[in-house]
Structure formats: structure tokens, C-alpha cells
Prior knowledge:
Elements: E1 4-7, E2 10-13, E3 18-24, H1 39-52, E4 56-60, H2 73-87, E5 93-97, H3 101-109, E6 114-117, H4 124-132, E7 137-141, H5 159-176, E8 184-187, H6 196-204, H7 206-210, E9 217-218, H8 224-230, H9 238-250, E10 255-258, H10 261-280
Parallel strand pairs: 3-4, 3-10, 4-5, 5-6, 6-7, 7-8, 9-10
Antiparallel strand pairs: 1-2
Helix pairs in contact: 1-2, 2-3, 3-4, 9-10
Amino acid sequence: MSGSWLCGRFEFSLKRPLLMGVVNVTPDSFSDGGQHVDTTSAIAHAQKLVTEGADIIDIGGESTRPGALPVSIQEELARILPVMAAMRDCGAAISVDTCKPEVMQAALEAGADIINDVTGMRLPEAQRIIAAHSNCGVCLMHMQGDPRTMQSNPHYQNVVHEVQEALVAQAHLLERLGVNRARISLDPGLGFGKTLDHNYQLLHGLALLVQSGYPVVLGASRKSLIGQVTGKPVDQRLSGSIAAALAGVARGVAVVRVHDVDATHDALKVWQAIQVAGDLS
């Protein structure tokens, strides 16, 4: 992947894979629910991820795990805004993981660099907000259904092509509304309305999404697709998560969204060294 991704105060070169570190300020996220639900703990965790090499901190105040119930706008903002304020000048871009237009608006007014929407900006109001903020980056994720229903018999004729077509169509919609193409990234949404086979077909076929020309964000870290193959619980999925991340960057993924920044950072350093050696030979 070459080029750049424009994200608020940042223009990220895509000559190397970027690391997006996950900060869940929630009591019920699948991977770390309750570990960072209070502001002090969430800030300390975010600072740790930056120290470990995160280029982007992705702050979420509402769980999107299968079956998750929504929280109020006020509760979501109460969770994320203090963390955002503390991390504003940390040196990493600030991403906010939300699908609510009201939260997007407040987050952007508070200085968010990226909006990461698991629904792919389906709501017209969300689209208008993103179009009105000319500098922010946006991540469009694919999800079939919503968190409460997405794992109820998801079905595709060809999951790789259908996900690619849906995401590119949504990106084109934003462009028609005036969003600079260089601000848009795409996420295939592993685990969001996909079976195990769908997830691995998407991982194998990531090159098709990369060929669309938009930066691709990959979030496989600690997900059930790792556990179903390895037989390991959430807190023992590091090796599998790194394998998925490396498979993604080998296929041209620009950003890997992970919980374990330090270990993934080391793995990417080795991967980059191998790439450089190949270029020199």
C-alpha cells in the first residue's frame, strides 16, 4: 500500500502498516470488558499503548460484541470525552469508535481525528456530519445487520465480492457528498455478520479490497475467529491475532487494529525488515 491517509491533524504515510490500539471504555466488550471502564484506567491504558507504538488510539464507549445492547448518547459521551481530553496531545491520532451521529459530532468538536463507524455510515445524519468536517478521517466498516442480530444466520453468495462492493459503494456515496477520498478507509468487519468460513474467506481475499485503492483497516485481534481455530480463550489469543495481522499486511492492509500493541509492533518490525531486505537484494 502506498499513498497517505488524511486524519484530522495527521497525514499518515502508508509506506508501512499503521497500528491502531483499542481502548474500550466499556463494562461489556468481548475482549477486555470492565478492565478500563473507569476514566483513570482507560487513560493509563491508552498512554501505555502509545508508548508501545500505537499510531492511532481507537476509543470506544459502547460494546459492539454480538448481542450487545446500545447505551445512551449521554453515557457514551461520559465514557469517551474525558479519555479524549487526556490523550489529545499524546502524539497519536485520536479515533472514536461510534455509530451515533450525536456522539460523532461531539467527538469531532472535542478534537477527534478519525470516526470509526461499525455500521459504515449508514445514517444520513452521520454522512452529513462527516461531510461537514473537512479534515477528519473516517473508517467505514461492513456489518450485516446490527450487533443484536448480526450473527443470526449471516448469508452471502460471495462474501469477498459482496463486502468489497458494499464498502466501495458507501465510500463513493461519501465522496459524492464532498468527502475527500484520501480521508476514507475501509474495514471488512471480521466477526460482524459473518460465519467462521466467511471470516477466513475475507482474510484470504483481502487483496481485492486493497485493490479498491482505499486504505484497509483490519480488526481480527482476539476475536472468536481466532478462538474457534486455536481453541484458546480470549486472553490466550495473542499468537493467533498476530498471525492474522501479518496475513493482512502481506495482502496490503494499511492499518491493523489490535489490543496487544507491543507484541504486534515487534512482529511488524520484523516483517518490515524482511521487506526492506527484499527491496535491497
